[in-house]
Each structure stands twice: as structure tokens, then as C-alpha cells.
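Notes from the 1:1 (GR / supervisor)

We went over the backlog. Supervisor wanted to see one worked example end to end before approving the batch request, so GR pasted a single chain during the call. The sequence is below; no edits were made to it. Supervisor asked that the structure be written out right there so they could see what the output format looks like.
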Amino acid sequence: MQNYVHGYAERESTRLVDQANTLEALLHCDTTFPAGSTVLEAGCGTGAQTVILAKNNPDVQITAIDTSEDSMTEARTRLARQGLSNVHFKLADIFDLPFDPESFDYVFVCFVLEHLADPLASLKKLQSVLRKGGSITAIEGDHGSFYCYPQTKEASLSVQCLIDIQAYLKGNALVGRQLYPLLQEAGFTQTAVSPRMVYVDSSKPDLVEGFTKRTFIAMVEGVKEQALSMALIDERTWDKGIADLYRTTEHDGTFCYTFFKGTGIKL
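Structure output shown during the call:
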């Protein structure tokens, strides 16, 4: 994925695993498929979500695709370490799927649409390889849903840098709020979207570390060089903004963010 705003460094791989593990119960408590069914995971990356899918659905055959061979190599290693063998990896592009029509019972796509210039076209492509009566599950975040206490102008500006950089790369960091109309326009029926809110305060130390620090703030920190080189912000404002985000992880701080999980059925 050439326009992946977060890059492919080891730090990002670690962040993705932290994110997946921290949010497993919130995002995947209802991501289960019938035994014997076939599932296409589109955009598996380094396998952070794939491990959860495979572990929670041991009697399902999963085909995981991505455009990055390096990411898929890491994903294979990650699943092998977990002793999971129900996943087949294939180098493939969502916009040029190497599968016959109606090849899969289910499609799963997570944190991918936000990075695509044409998410609607990708959903239509994925629908083409889904069997009639099969369903898609799509999960996306929405950086515009973030708020915190205390919330400063500088903290908000630093997050806005990430939103603006992703837009410059033809992505959409606000795609979560658009998930329902996208699934509808792609032709899915019985479409339903549920918000999955992460609320964090000091009574939830696992979320303070796993989500606020190692998932969200780490994601924002990762675009510092891009933000400065594009003159979206000056370094002093950036540094204060990041410090202010960390301030929300202290004993009297709070943090909130909303993910959106959508499903739809192919007639």
C-alpha cells in the first residue's frame, strides 16, 4: 500500500500489534464465522488482525491478501509463532483480485479503507468475490472522533496534521463516519454500523498504555517529519501538542475515540 501514511518501520509493526491486542474485545467480540466457511481478509498487513481472526475462528479457512511481500512475511512468522495454520497468504491487490467471482463466504477488511483513494471501488471489488448471501465486515476509525481532557489547541493541531497528511496521500482518516453510506452505495443490503467507543481514564491502566500511549499517540508521533516538512505546523507547537496528548494519560486525564464496525450482505 504505497499511500500507507504510517510507514513500514518496525515501530509501526509494534504499534499495530499493540492496537490489535488492546482492542480485541471491543472490535472482535462478535467477529466469528461458521465452521467450514471461507473468509477473505483484504489488506492483512503484518497480521496483527489476522492472528485474532485465526485464533477466534479455528475451523474457518482464511485467505489473507496484501500488496507488501515484506508485511506478509512478517504475518506468516507471527501466525507460525502462535501455532495457527488456518490461514493462506497471497500477494494480491484489492483492485485486481486473483479470485473467481463468488469465491468466499465472508469478507473481512479492517483499517484499510482509510488508506485507499477510492474505498467505494474497493468495496465493489470485494463484493464481486463474495458469494450471494455472504457478508462483509468492515472496521474503520475516525480521527475526528478524538477528544480528551485536558484538550489544548496544540494537541488538536497535532492530530489534525495526521488527518491532513492522510488526505494529501489520497486517504481519509475520517472514513469511519462514512462507512454506512459506502456499504450501501457498494450494493450491500441489511447494512448495519455500530460505534465502538474507547473511553480511557486512569482507572483503566491497560488502555492508558495500550491505546492512548502505544496506539493513538504513537500513530500521531509517527508523522512528525512529514508534518514539519509540509509546514503544517512548527516544531514548537508540535512538541507541545504531543506533550499535551501525553498529559491526558496522567491521573486526572481522560481520552476518547470511536471506531465504527459495519456489516452488509450480498444479495
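Supervisor's comment: Residues 198 and 257 are 5 Å apart (CA to CA).
Batch request approved.
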